Amino acid sequence: MAFTTKNAMRALFLLALVCAVQAGKAASKDAKAADDGAAKGGGSCPSGSCDITKLGASGNGKTDSTKALEEAWASACGGTGKNTILIPKGDYLVGPLNFKGPCKGDVTIQVDGNLLASTDLSLYKKNWIEILRVDNLVITGKGKLDGQGSAVWSKNSCAKKYDCKILPNSLVLDYVNNGEVSGITLLNSKFFHMNVYQCKDLVIKDVTVTAPGDSPNTDGIHMGDSSGISIVNTVIGVGDDCISIGPGSTKVNITGVTCGPGHGISIGSLGRYKDEKDVTDITVKDCTLKKSSNGLRIKAYEDAASVLTASKIHYENIKMEDAGNPIIIDMKYCPNKICTSSGASKVTVKDVSFKNITGTSSTPEAVSLLCSDKIPCSGVTMDNVKVEYSGTNNKTMAVCKNAKVTTTASLKELACA
Ligand SMILES: *[C@@H]1O[C@H](CO)[C@@H](O)[C@H](O)[C@H]1NC(C)=O
Ligand SMILES: *[C@@H]1O[C@H](CO)[C@@H](O)[C@H](O)[C@H]1NC(C)=O
Ligand SMILES: *[C@@H]1O[C@H](CO)[C@@H](O)[C@H](O)[C@H]1NC(C)=O
């Protein structure tokens, strides 16, 4: 027995060795071929440009072009140097796309035309366009990623069920380092428009995100476990949070964003799942909230499954245009009453500053700091917070529970007593 096993092991070892050598040869041959020609990409990407219409994609909005995009990705990602996937003007129907790295060189996806997501849910495992483990990724252009969500929004049961089935997110970036998403429009996603997870140094700029105000869970941009994320000059109007900054987010800059309709620019929800990490170093500056149901919000579950801290959060130069709950820290967050709102809070919120927050509120409570009695909010400062109730027969007010606040130069009605 022992003898045969040993022999078998040796045979396997030799076989593995031969295979490894062959694979190595093949790989270096490919790399050489790629370096030799002017063409940096694979065979179907002459001069480093993979035009999907040259790979069989059809811009008539009806023919399934998934295969062409998959092929374009394989070529672009497999080529050294810079490679561009070109999506020319036109409407391309595509099912789920799973673009995996690491890539040999840098890939740009030039979106001049529109990608339309298939509405056949049986095709999807999880998301629509998933990009994983890619460094130096650029997605740019004036085209649209249309999730065609209106066909399936009625199948969303998340308002009723805590552990509901999640519909496909439109654009998902996982483990992407040093990326840029610019110029494009994300339209009517089935679930979140963009989900950023485990990414580092990503700039999202000049992007438009649009879905009806009553479309379920169509968050604009959600991020989690990521650092160095900037969202710049972006217009978001959706049916859920315009931006949600989830657990594990650090060094986030949000500048020049307009939000509305939508549920606001949110940090959280925090504490829902196990092993969530801290949120820290968040700056939100020069933004406008237009008729959103919340403005600047921090939300945490009181029956939290994780112990975590949200800290060093700075809001500055924010204009409220008839926003509901312009400033709200809600540590008893419990949407649709599908959780318990009483429990031992484990989420700490501290060092939050609000500077130059002006405009109008659609709710009398312009400031709500609803912190938990077990872990009060600390280090909250307000400097020039001046938001007036826009309705009639009531006045602007602050509702503060378990919050230590330092207020300077603001409406006295908004100072937490
Ligand atoms: C955020 O902005 C600040 C001030 O403009 C800057 O110092 C910092 O590097 C920025 N961080 C990111 C992640 O872009
Ligand atoms: C306050 O913020 C507004 C934008 O909401 C800006 O126009 C104004 O210049 C800011 N004021 C100061 C003193 O920075
Ligand atoms: C004013 O608003 C507060 C908070 O929403 C509410 O409790 C109160 O009843 C309102 N007062 C009037 C007169 O409507």
TrEMBL record:
The keyword Mitochondrion does not apply. One of its GO terms (biological process) is cell wall organization. It is an enzyme of class 3 (hydrolase). Its main location: secreted. It holds the Pfam family Glyco_hydro_28. It is found in: Secreted, Cell wall. Gene3D superfamilies: Single-stranded right-handed beta-helix, Pectin lyase-like. Keywords: Cell wall, Cell wall biogenesis/degradation, Disulfide bond, Glycoprotein, Glycosidase, Hydrolase, Repeat, Secreted, Signal. It comes from the Eukaryota. InterPro entries: Glyco_hydro_28, PbH1, Pectin_lyas_fold, Pectin_lyase_fold/virulence. The active site is at 263. It catalyses: [(1->4)-alpha-D-galacturonosyl](n) + H2O = alpha-D-galacturonate + [(1->4)-alpha-D-galacturonosyl](n-1). Residues 1-23 form the signal peptide. The keyword Secreted applies. Its EC number is 3.2.1.67. One of its GO terms (molecular function) is galacturan 1,4-alpha-galacturonidase activity. PANTHER family: PTHR31375. May function in depolymerizing pectin during pollen development, germination, and tube growth. Acts as an exo-polygalacturonase. Belongs to the glycosyl hydrolase 28 family. This is Exopolygalacturonase.
